[in-house]
Amino acid sequence: MPFTKLGTLIAGVVFFLGCIQLALLAGVTLGAVTEPRPGFFLGNLTREQALDSGLLKIMAAVAFGVITEISRSVEKK
What we know:
Oligomer: single chain
Distance between the termini: 13 Å
Helix content: over 70%
Largest sheet: none
Keywords: Membrane, Transmembrane, Transmembrane helix
Structural class: mainly alpha
Transmembrane segments: 55-74
Number of strands: 0
Order of helices and strands: HH
């Protein structure tokens, strides 16, 4: 039970971080966010690497969330 709740929390945090990374990428790409120096907000990643990293975080969080939901449904039986 505590591992399921912890897994859900971790999946939520990783999903949130992935969304924030993609939002920052969109802001930098569209010019809404001006960086004081190149790579400041994207963590010294190129735009393509930041996109890949953000999408990978979101997909991993969704997969981990599915696993925790399976764990929750097995606990109820």
